[in-house]
Amino acid sequence: DVQLTQSPSSLSASVGDRVTITCRASQNINIYLNWYQQKPGKAPSLLVYAASSLQSGVPSRFSGSGSGTDFTLTISSLQREDFATYFCQQSYSTLRTFGQGTKVEIK
Amino acid sequence: QVKLQQWGAGLLKPSETLSLTCGVYGGSFSGFYWSWIRQSPGKGLEWIGEINDVGRTNYNPSLKSRLTISLDSSKNQFSVNMTSVTVADTAVYYCARWKDPLRYDVSSGYAFDTWGQGILVTVSS
């Protein structure tokens, strides 16, 4: 299995802050890494696919980067509606796996 | 805009069979894998398995012995059955869509791009 480790597990930030979340894969997964946002009581929603491609309709303040084993999701200027939990997920292997999540809370 | 709507029993006793169905509305059934994913506080998000429009399946090896994923293409629906449930199977279960790599180029993105609303399944005696 490809294991994904996110850091930090949680963070506190203010509106307008720049936020960076990292995801490390247990093996080289090229660019086969996706990011999702989940709000309480809702299903996850796709933000970024193939490491750096923004899903249609996602605000441009979200961006993804990385390849191989190390990836980042960046929110350039945190908005109130961005307080949520973020997950990475690999599409390298058929046994699809997710990171454990990063909860972004209001400072 | 495709929408997924799921339904099924939300309360089970240990050893019973979990059965959920997901309907696909407003989009094509072909060209995709149709997946089941669950989420629990203890195990996070866990991929269960998937089926494509011609019935090819892939299962999580840790659950494979208890799983059957099937489809009814005439109704644009797919289903999951999981036998012999235990308390550890308590979770929110989601259905989701994934592009079939044989039909779409990698540049279009292989990801869960559409999700159902989720159903909480509780296993309790």
Key traits:
heterodimer; A: 107 residues; mainly beta; seven-stranded mixed beta sheet; four-stranded antiparallel beta sheet; 11 strands; globular; B: 125 residues
According to DSSP, the number of beta strands of chain B is 11
State Rg of chain A.
13 Å
Low-pLDDT runs of chain A: none
Distance between the termini of chain A: 36 Å
The biggest sheet of chain B, with number of strands, parallel, antiparallel or mixed sense and barrel status, is: 7 strands, mixed
| Percent of residues in beta strands of chain B | over 45%
Describe what this molecule looks like in 3D:
The complex is a heterodimer of chains A (107) and B (125). With 107 residues, chain A is an all-beta fold. Chain A is 0% helix and 50% strand. Chain A has no helices and eleven strands. In chain A, strands 2, 4, 5, 6, 9, 10 and 11 form a seven-stranded mixed sheet that branches. A four-stranded antiparallel sheet of chain A has the order 1-3-8-7, with no helix packed on it. In chain A, strand 7 and strand 8 form a beta hairpin. The mean pLDDT of chain A is 97. In chain B, strand 7 and strand 8 form a beta hairpin. Chain B is globular and about 45 Å long. Chain B has no helices and eleven strands. In chain B, the strands form two sheets. In chain B, strands 2, 4, 5, 6, 9, 10 and 11 form a seven-stranded mixed sheet that branches. Chain B is mainly beta and 125 residues long. Chains A and B meet through strand 5 and strand 10 of A and strand 5 and strand 10 of B.
